[in-house]
Amino acid sequence: MSEGTKAPPRLDTDRLLDDPRTRIIVCCGSGGVGKTTTAAALGLRAAERGRHVVVLTVDPARRLAQSMNLSSLDNTPRPVPLPDAPAGGTLHAMMLDMKRTFDEIVEAHADPDRAEQILANPFYQSLSSSFAGTQEYMAMEKLGQLRRSEQWDLIVVDTPPSRSALDFLDAPQRLSRFLDGRLIKLLTAPTRAGGRAYLKVVNAGFGMLTGIVTKVLGAQVLRDVQTFIAAFDTMFGGFRERAEDTYRLLQTPGTAFVVVATPEPDALREASYFVERLSEDRMPLAGLILNRVHRSPAVRLSAARSLAAAEALMPGGGTENNSQGGNGAGTPLAEVTPHPLAVAALRLHAERMQRIAAERRLAQRFTAAHPGVPVARVTAQPEDVHDLAALRVIGESLGSD
Ligand SMILES: Nc1ncnc2c1ncn2[C@@H]1O[C@H](COP(=O)(O)OP(=O)(O)OP(=O)(O)O)[C@@H](O)[C@H]1O
Ligand SMILES: [Mg+2]
C-alpha cells in the first residue's frame, strides 16, 4: 500500500464547464468505463449552467439515447428539451453514424449508379462498418465539422468503444496507413493513371493479385472495389488535411481531455498509458474521472469488525448466550436477535468495505505515478444511468466531489 501518497488535486469539473475558454471536452478511456455516460452528464450540466452545448455520442445505450431525444442514429445534432435551464443554456445531442458518414462520402463523390453499386458492394460494406479505426476517424471528422460550424460554445465528445483509449488518437493515422498501404496501391494501380513508371514496378505483382482477386470475388466486385477506392482516394488528401487540423485543434488550450476510468486495474492501467500519451502529444489533460466509485454510509464499521459481528451472530458463534433468543450478555451485538438477514447485511458490508479499500489503493497507485493529475470521483449508482435525472445525479456527483 502506498501510504505516503498525497491526495491528488481535485478536478474541478464545474470550473472547467463554466470557463468560456473551454470549447471542447473529450472523454476518453477504455471500454465500458462510462465515457458515454460522462460525456452526456457533463454536457447536461454545462447546459444547465448556461452554456450552449452539443454532445457527440458514439453508441449510447438505447434508453440513454431515448432520454436525450435521439431515436435513431443520425448525423445531425438534435435539441434535447431541458425543462428547466434557468441559466439560459441549450443542449443538443447526436449519435455518430459512422456507416452513414462513409455512405455520404460515396454518394457525394460518385454518380448515382456507381454509388449504388459501391454501397451494395460487400467489400465496401465491411470496410465502412467494421474497419478498425473507421469509427474513431469519423468521430474526429465530425468533431472538426461541429467546431467549424461555430454553432456551439462547448462540444463534448464521447469516444468509440475500444479496448484502448489510445485508439482514438491513433485511428486517423491508421486509416492513412491503410489507404497508403500496399494492397490498396496494388488494387488501385490501374486507376491511378499517369504513373507509368510506378505501374511498371507493380505490374507483375498486380497482375497476379488481380488474377486471384478476380477469381475469388469476380471481376465486377474488383472493379467496384477499385472504383470505390479511387473515389475515396481523390478525396483522401482533403480527409487527411482535416484530420490533421482536428488533431492540432486537440492540442489547443480550448480543448480539455478527461480520462475516464473505473477503479479497476485494467481501466487504470489504460488511463495511465493515455495520460502519458497526451503529455507526449502535448494535448491538454484536465484530469481523471474515477467513475463507479463505491462508498458506504457506515465507513466507521470496518470490514474486520463487520465480519466478526456476523460470525458472532451465527448460531453457535461468538458470545455465550445466543443460541435461541440470544438476548443476554455483554456486547451490544448480543442484544441483536440473530437473523440471517443481519448476518448477510454484515457480510455485504464487509465486502463493500474491502472493495472500497481496494479501490482506494488502486487510485493511490495511479496518483503516485501521476501526482499532478487532478481527480474527480463519481459514485457508483445503484442502477444503470439512462435518463436525464440520473445524468444530473452524475453531474452533481462530479461537481461536488
Ligand atoms: N456511475 C455509474 N453508476 C452506475 N452505472 C454507471 C455509471 N456510469 C456508467 N454506468 C453504466 O455503465 C454502463 C457503461 O457505461 P457507458 O456506456 O457510459 O460506458 P462507455 O465507456 O461509453 O462504454 P463503451 O466503451 O462500450 O462505449 C452503462 O450501462 C451505464 O449506464
Ligand atoms: Mg460508449
Question: What descriptive keywords fit this protein?
Answer:
alpha/beta, binds adenosine-5'-triphosphate, 8 strands, 54% helix, 401 residues, binds magnesium ion, eight-stranded mixed beta sheet
Description:
Helix 8 (167-180) crosses helix 11. This protein is globular. An eight-stranded mixed beta sheet has the order 3-4-2-5-1-6-7-8, sandwiched between helices. The protein has helices at residues 13-18, 35-48, 62-67, 98-109, 112-120, 122-130, 134-149, 167-180, 182-188, 196-217, 219-250, 265-280, 303-313, 340-369, 388-399, and strands spanning 24-28, 52-57, 74-79, 90-95, 154-158, 255-261, 285-293, 375-379. Strand 6 (255-261), helix 12 and strand 7 (285-293) form a beta-alpha-beta unit. By secondary structure, it is of the alpha/beta class. The model is unreliable at 191-204 and 319-330 (pLDDT under 50). The chain contains 15 helices and eight strands. It binds adenosine-5'-triphosphate and magnesium ion (MG). Magnesium ion (MG) binds next to helix 2. The site of adenosine-5'-triphosphate (ATP) has 20 residues, from helix 2 and strand 7.
The proportion of residues in beta strands is 5-15%
Bound molecules: adenosine-5'-triphosphate, magnesium ion
Shape: globular
In helices, the fraction of residues equals 40-55%
Order of helices and strands: HEHEHEEHHHHEHHHHEHEHHEH
* Helix and strand composition category: alpha/beta
Mean pLDDT over all positions:
80
Q: Rounded to an integer, what's the Rg over CA atoms? A: 27 Å
Q: Which strand order does the major sheet show?
A: 3-4-2-5-1-6-7-8
| Number of separate strands | 8
pLDDT below 50 for ≥5 consecutive residues: which ranges?
Answer: 191-204, 319-330
Number of helices: 15
